[in-house]
Amino acid sequence: MNNKNLSLIWKLGLVAMVVFLVWKGCSDSSGSKKSLEIVRAAKITRGDLEIKITATGEIKPQNRVEIKPTISGRIDEVLVEEGEEVKQGQILAWMSSTERAALLDAARAQGPEAFEKWQNAYKPAPLIAPLDGMVIVRAVEPGQTVSTTDPVVVLSDRLIVNAQVDETDLSLIKIGQRAEIGLDAYPDRFIEAKVDHISYESTLVNNVNVYAVDVLPDQIPSVFRSGMTANVVFLVAERKGTLLVPSEAVSAFPKHVKNPNGYDFAIYKKSFGGKLVPMPVRIGESDGRVTEILEGIKENEEIVIVKSKRSELGTNPFSARRPNRQSRPSN
Questions:
Q1: What gap in Å lies between CA 111 and CA 254, rounded to an integer?
Q2: CB neighbour class for 281 (10 Å; exposed up to 12, middle 13-18, buried from 19)
Q3: Cβ burial, residue 112 (10 Å; 0-12/13-18/19+)
Q4: pTM over cut 0.70
Q5: How many angstroms separate the Cα of 288 from the Cα of each of 52, 283, 294, 321, 330?
Q6: Distance from C-alpha of 67 to C-alpha of 139, rounded to nearest angstrom
């Protein structure tokens, strides 16, 4: 084969290679455009963000004290009612021992003078409050016979909400953290509160480890009753005047595109030529609905929410994060 033929073959091969590269570039470009679809346009806004988690609980006495008599006998008089506040050392009830009750019954049969004589000579026994608190149970009435195992009155030093928190959320709960209590019995009423205690031992509920968290109201309302079902919203994080974007607009930054900032996430913008451009952003907190943007984009910038036909980009990266988180409007 002469040099002329070799030159011709070389030129044809070079042309074929150029055509192939141009075709591949166009194909990749076309494929890239087809791989992303615009769902809708959006704008970067500034606003407040609150990250909250919820838990169910029950109103319980923090310290429940049953007042039982030290002797068996009969209740003469009960001096307190349910819901009444009492002080340490206060007399809650008077009772007669079994012997005194029998003696007085016999004296009463002998007449008023005999009854009064023995009533003054043989004094009744008092039941004393051992602490400051509220009467939550009045278990007896005058004339009722009791033993040393029967509670006459039950006291509570204060009512709290005992919330059950999933172990996956426990790291977000801190002593003194703000919370809000809602009651099933009063759905329109919300009580400000704070975390008072976090249990050190878990309980297995439906194959899930949960921890008891005591939530103390700032002011215990009169509607509180032991045993009520409560819903507790814990304030995990709060951002004021921060940049916000719909969470569905946040995608993983594409690996084949140069990333000048090295951020893991991207928000897409539409260029003048209609091309979709990923903007690397650094994100902050998210409630699943909106996400905080810390760096990479400015307020009022126009963006687009996109999805991938291969479902690589349109997936909200926050959709699987703590499904019991929610954002509620501030009062």
A1: 101
A2: buried
A3: exposed
A4: no
A5: 11, 13, 16, 8, 17
A6: 10
| Cβ contact 69:125 at 8 Å | yes
177/111 Cα distance (integer angstroms): 66
H or E stretch covering 192:
strand 190-205
Residues 6+ apart with CB under 8 A from 233: 52, 53, 54, 179, 180, 182, 326, 328
- The count of residues in the chain is 331
How far apart are alpha carbons 150 and 69 in whole angstroms?
A: 7
Whole-angstrom CA distances from 234 to 162, 163, 170, 267, 318 are 13, 10, 11, 30, 19
Give 9-24 as a DSSP string.
Answer: HHHHHHHHHHHHHHHH
**E strands of 218-289, at which residues?**
229-246, 251-252, 265-270, 276-286
Q: What is the DSSP string of 93-152?
A: EEEEEHHHHHHHHHHHHH-HHHHHHHHHHSPPEEEE-SSSEEEEEE---TT-EE-TTS-S
CB 240 within 8 Å of CB 301: no
**Beta partners for residue 96, in sequence order:** 74
Q: Is 89 left (phi over 0), alpha (psi -120 to 50) or beta?
A: left
Would you state the pLDDT for residue 329? 37
Weakest mean pLDDT among 133-137, 203-207, 271-275: 271-275
Please write the tens of the pLDDT for every residue from 1-16.
Answer: 554 444 555 445 544 5
Task: Order the strands of the 64-67 sheet from edge to edge.
Answer: 64-67, 153-156, 133-138, 85-86
Which H helix or E strand runs over 85?
strand 85-86
- One-letter amino acid identity for 19? V
All domains in the chain, ordered by first residue: 37-62+158-331 (2.40.30.170), 64-156 (2.40.50.100)
